[in-house]
Specification:
With about 400 residues, the protein is α/β, with parallel strands linked by helices. The chain is built from 9 helices and 21 strands. The N and C termini lie far apart (about 70 Å).
């Protein structure tokens, strides 16, 4: 009878996107045979991870590690977590970590030049695991003895929950390339139609030649719509940061092709933004109001009077949120957008009661942010599911 190989065979990080970005949420430790779940508990392993957060720390802090809190362990037959968090026969021990730990963030500085910076997903995660107790097999054999102080680094690429389910595409128009990722419902059926949510990211998540998928991982908007409860198609372009007008035209061209190729309900196409992406939304809504059913703008730039007039003429519902103490884009920009839209509706004779359902506006005080980045208005916005539902409830009238 062949004896199972002893010792740890592999270690896989498992990530998920939290409100303010992707982090390592668990690790999968693989052994040479099925593990006895009774031989492992929350004291069997310790985990350390980087304390670096691109929003607050210099890249030099990436190597600084801090302890993570292990909240549960169980066995599994694959290097992924289980929704029921129960052990099943398998060679993997899943070590789940406290999601509230301020550590294990995966997004790091990518490039910085002339005050223009971008971020990317770190391909070399710093997570380490130390095994402190014996791990036994179901057949009574010792699979791995305690190593005490021997910390092991990750040996396999990360399993990225939800993010890995997005597919890559690119769109070429007038010499410009627009990379994007998209997510289809699990039971996607080309014979029916689905609402489409277009997610326009912040400046730092723009394409820099080396940072694909970061617009999915740097913060929650792209993945949140996938998990919101309704089957939707999510489209997340990665802009080139060359200006709102040119990029809006490229976005519109992408949408024309995408809605033709996939089963999109053209009465329910929405756009949502983070920071820089608001410029694309305002311009695209003004140029092609027929394409969009509603918009959500978080921590963004101001719509000008002309854009507001076009949006009001088409009566596209828009919800605007902003941090009162936003240190990147002053809250007065959001107030200007609201004012321009209110004036545009007033000029069209729209009564205030009707405007209330077409224009929503929220300012967040500092306590609304669970991390002190008051530019990240998407945080409290996406933690309020009623805002997302308000968007999805809108649709263009039937022709």
């Amino acid at each position: 009878m062949n004896q199972a190989p002893t010792g740890i065979q592999s270690i896989t990080p498992i990530t998920r996107v939290c409100t303010y970005g992707q982090k390592v949420s668990a690790v999968a430790v693989e052994y040479g045979d099925d593990v006895d779940p009774d031989s492992v508990d929350t004291t069997t392993f310790s985990v350390q991870d980087t304390a670096y957060n691109f929003r607050f720390h210099p890249i030099e802090d990436l190597s600084k590690l801090t302890d993570r809190q292990v909240i549960r362990t169980y066995t599994n037959d694959a290097a992924t977590t289980r929704a029921d968090q129960r052990s099943v026969p398998g060679r993997y021990v899943i070590v789940e970590l406290d999601p509230d730990d301020d550590a294990g963030w995966t997004v790091i500085l990518s490039k910085y030049a002339d005050s223009r910076w971008t971020v990317k997903v770190n391909p070399d995660l710093r997570t380490t695991v130390t095994q402190h107790g014996d791990v036994d097999g179901l057949r009574g054999s010792l699979l791995a003895g305690a190593t005490r102080e021997q910390a092991r680094t990750m040996t396999r690429p990360a399993t990225n929950q939800v993010v890995d389910d997005f597919r890559y595409g690119s769109h070429l128009s007038d010499g410009m390339v627009l990379p994007y990722h998209y997510h289809l419902p699990t039971a996607y059926d080309a014979e029916r139609t689905y609402p489409l949510v277009v997610v326009l990211p912040g400046h730092g998540m723009g394409w820099d030649g080396d940072n694909l998928r970061v617009q999915l991982a740097a913060d929650v908007p792209a993945t949140a719509w996938v998990q919101n409860g309704e089957d939707v198609i999510v489209l997340a372009p990665q802009h080139q940061r060359v200006g709102g007008v040119a990029e809006a035209e490229l976005l519109i061209d992408l949408l024309e092709h995408f809605t033709h190729d996939f089963a999109v309900d053209r009465r329910r196409v929405y756009a949502t933004t983070v920071s820089y992406g608001s410029q694309l939304l305002w311009q695209a809504f003004a140029e092609r109001p027929d394409l969009f059913a509603a918009g959500l703008v978080t921590g963004g730039y101001a719509a000008d009077a002309g854009q507001a007039a076009a949006i009001a003429a088409a009566e596209i519902p828009v919800w605007i949120t902003h941090g009162v103490h936003d240190h990147v884009l002053d809250v007065n920009l959001a107030r200007m957008s609201r004012s321009h839209l209110q004036d545009a509706y007033a000029e069209r004779g729209k009564p205030p009661k009707q405007v209330e359902d077409l224009l929503k506006y929220v300012e967040y005080e500092d306590p609304a942010f669970s991390i002190p980045d008051y530019h990240a208005a998407f945080g409290p916005t996406y933690e309020d599911s009623s805002i997302l539902q308000w968007v999805l409830n809108k649709s263009k009238p039937r022709p």
